[in-house]
């Protein structure tokens, strides 16, 4: 059976969380690294909206949103058990991701890309986004992960965006009194799973040899 194709971009947080879910499930896919300034025609033919991640495969499989890829991975593989929270439910963890996407991500964009918006103050947007970080810090008090003692779908769904928020101005971020979030984020960035899904790949061009993801464990 042919592997599904994952169109991805290494630094995109949406693509990161999709790759983390596939990695957790041990689901082999053919990875095609997309460059936004030069999108492959085959990618646009598959998904005209032109954003990553996109997972395409047999039997009309076409998932164009990272959360759909996460849900699919959890339904068909061991990711469903591995990423299940040990405190709270999977539905509750997914709801936190959805709320982050709706409420935190717009502030993150206006903070990181303030020059792209009219009448937007990046520092004001940073302050608005910081409220969500403070909420996460409270959730992480006394425990290593958002929903208890083990990594769950909430952690892989949220952490790539907190990482992006932190990297806009790391001196400022690491100067805040977010001891729990900083510990959690640093552990996430140093984790074998994250390092594995962040391996660098060249831009995909039709005719290239297939790149199988997840990569072999060294």
Quick structural overview:
It contains ten helices and five strands. It is of the alpha+beta class.
Chain-wise SSE layout:
Layout: E1 5-8, H1 13-25, E2 29-33, H2 41-46, E3 54-57, E4 61-63, H3 66-76, H4 79-82, H5 90-112, H6 122-139, H7 153-168, H8 170-173, H9 179-190, H10 192-197, E5 211-213
Parallel strand pairs: 1-2
Antiparallel strand pairs: 1-3, 2-5, 3-4
Helix pairs in contact: 1-3, 1-7, 5-6, 5-7
Question: Can you characterise this structure?
Answer:
- There is one protein chain.
- This protein has 218 residues and is an alpha+beta fold.
- Helix content is 52%, strand content 9%.
- It is built from ten helices and five strands, in the order E-H-E-H-E-E-H-H-H-H-H-H-H-H-E.
- The protein has a five-stranded mixed β-sheet with strand order 4-3-1-2-5.
- Strand 3 and strand 4 form a beta hairpin.
- Helix 5 (90-112) packs antiparallel against helix 6.
- The model has no long low-confidence stretch (mean pLDDT 96).
Shape, please? globular
* Integer average pLDDT: 96
Low-confidence stretches: none
SSE string, helix = H, strand = E?
EHEHEEHHHHHHHHE
Helix proportion: 40-55%
Tell me the distance between the termini: 26 Å
Q: In what order do the strands lie side by side in the largest sheet?
A: 4-3-1-2-5
Strand content: 5-15%
Task: Count the beta strands.
Answer: 5
Based on helices, strands and strand pairing, what is the structural class? alpha+beta
Count of DSSP-assigned helices? 10
Radius of gyration: 18 Å
